[in-house]
Amino acid sequence: SSNQKYTTHIIEVQQNGNSGQIVWEWHIFDHMIQDVDSNKPGFGVVANHPELMDINVPVAGFGPFSSDWFHCNGIDYNPTLDQIVFTSRFLSEFFIIDHSTTTAEAATHTGGNAGNGGDFLYRWGNPGNYKSTFGVQRIPAAVHDPRWIKDDGRPNGGYIQFFNNEGNNGNSSVDAINPPRVGLNYTFNASSGYAPLNYDWRHNCIVSAWGQSASDRMANGNLFVNVSGEHMYEVDTMGMVVWQYAAGPVKAFRYACDDPGIIALLGASPCGVVAVDDADLSEINLFPNPSTGVFKLSGIPSHYQSVEITVFDVFGHQVLSLENTDVIDLAVQANGVYFVSIRIDESPIISKKISLLH
Length: 358
Known about the structure:
CATH class of the largest domain: Mainly Beta
Strand content: 35-45%
Number of domains: 2
Structural class: mainly beta
Order of helices and strands: EEEEEEEHEEEEEEEEEEEHEEEEEEE
Distance between the termini: 67 Å
Helix content: under 10%
């Protein structure tokens, strides 16, 4: 029928051998409001209840009659807050709910550590979804892969990061915001909606994707980006590309070598790694800089076995790849700024910025 809507719900499953048992669940239809018919359930003033979902929110979703109206496409759990964040592609918004409730409380408006049952504790991206007359839409279109950045010293710790498929004039970006959290709840301004008014941090992707995709702020501070069907790459805190791979997965994630899952797969078998001490890398440089065409690599440790050099333009496109040389010839390239990734043996990648002036 024309009023059909798929019912979004979230469940927690406790594994039991090859099967599992649902131990917690939340259903969006327990948290609806409507302002059309006072004789129907959930009647109220939508603008006064941002903690609820307007069942009549205008949206063009997948399926017959836009039945896939919500299209939850990403989810993350914060064990410190005991809260869940998830995204809706077609509403261009993400939501936070309390996981500390019982299943019974999750179907109501009270209970849990935050005291609001299963109602939205926070939402961000499109105040028009709850008929805010002052707030402006912050996420233009599709949004994917929300995640809390671990607050362990890496940049923007505690922020919520997400892939904004059309964040910058139709081009994809990775955005992060710092939610206005007080304790386990979030402040709301009736005149402007939930803060902030705009993203707090943004990385403009080197290529774009209309849907899906993912990102992660890594333990070393770098940003990993997976642009669906296009590209995977890593940039350092200065925005310099230090690794990239042309591939077409819809979603990918990067795991550190000391991740428990990686360690479990590798087992306890020892392996030898020949590496250059970090102290030996401090003298590595490129000169002259700026140059009219040829750059010389200096400071390479005398005991090295291999050198890998990759040069990228400001758009992240690879323009040159070299091995076992100390000369970088960019004479045929256009004037401008370039980024050089240098890897010696198994050492961490070193990034340098150079300027070419013919």
